[in-house]
Amino acid sequence: MSLRVVALLAGCLLLVACNKINQDNYTQLKAGMSKDEVQNLLGKPTECAGALGMSSCTWGDEQRFISVQYAGDKVMMFSGKGLK
Question: For residue 38, what is the domain's CATH number?
Answer without folding.
Answer: 3.30.1450.10
